[in-house]
Amino acid sequence: MLVVLLGAPGAGKGTQADILTERNGLTHVSSGDLLRMHRQQKTELGQLAQSYMDRGDLVPDDVVIRMVLDKLSEETDGPGVVLDGFPRTAPQAKALDEALGGSGIDVVLHVKVPEDELVRRLSNRYICRGCSRPYTAESMGKACESCGGELYQREDDMPEAVRNRLQVYANQTYPLIDYYEGKGKLVEVNGLQDVDAVTADVMEALAH
Ligand code: AMP
To answer: Does this model's pTM top 0.85?
Structure first.
């Protein structure tokens, strides 16, 4: 099974992907987490990605496509994959379709959240350096409850970069909603609800 989570930064894609991993055994493939891992390991790709990411711009398509498709080709066993943060542009969506061939995507879940709520969530978001689990500012200074890692505010969750990321989302990623709707793959989920209610809608969408 291949599930794609589409939605603006801060919509809660990562949270729902983790829940799908826990409940349905899907492998969570997050392009943002893969890129942050490359940065931590100071790979060539990580160094290339750094300035784009810190500004809130997209990393060039060719490198992101190669990185994610390589990862997907390793995930052939198990119940499937939940893709979080990829595709984010039309060329990425086309490359994914081509790579998948006949089997294709099962469902694209569009997690919808209004912009003022996204800004509020992102500027209050702290992330574990070890496992990327999200926290709010109140947890700052504590250790991650899952892995004991340090909590930090991402460079791209600072106000200037947040504004840019939302603009980039509107210009480059939002058009994918029409693309997947045209293919009959899209299901809208109200991301403004509490986490359990969003999960219930996600599970319902997967059941059909
Ligand atoms: P995320 O953790 O998904 O919010 O991604 C953090 C940053 O990584 C984004 O702002 C981009 O700079 C970069 N990034 C993640 N996924 C992609 C993608 N599919 N295409 C291009 N850049 C990406």
So the answer is: yes
